[in-house]
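Hi all, posting the design record for the shared folder.

TITLE: backbone redesign
STEP: 1 of 1
STRUCTURE INPUT:
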């Protein structure tokens, strides 16, 4: 089974939370790799959103992504 990827490249910082909500709540994705790229601000937005929404995640520092599993 192929892992679902949510690629945030090309999104504005203001669009990230809506994209994550769409994936994890509306589409009901339970497990995915969220690709942030190297933007420190993008990573912080994603990290904060996961914490606020109580999602378990692992941050892959060298891959510039997060693995999320509900």
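Okay, here is what came back for every position:
SEQUENCE:
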């Amino acid at each position: 089974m192929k892992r679902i990827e949510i690629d945030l490249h090309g999104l504005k910082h203001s669009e990230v939370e809506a994209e994550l909500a769409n994936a994890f709540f509306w589409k009901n994705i339970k497990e995915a790799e969220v690709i942030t790229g190297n933007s420190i601000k993008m990573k912080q937005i994603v990290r904060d959103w996961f914490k606020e929404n109580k999602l378990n995640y692992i941050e892959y520092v060298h891959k510039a992504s997060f693995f999320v599993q509900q």
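COMMENT: The domain at 4-69 is CATH 3.30.1370.110 (Ribosomal Protein S8; Chain: A, domain 1).
Let me know if anyone wants the other runs.
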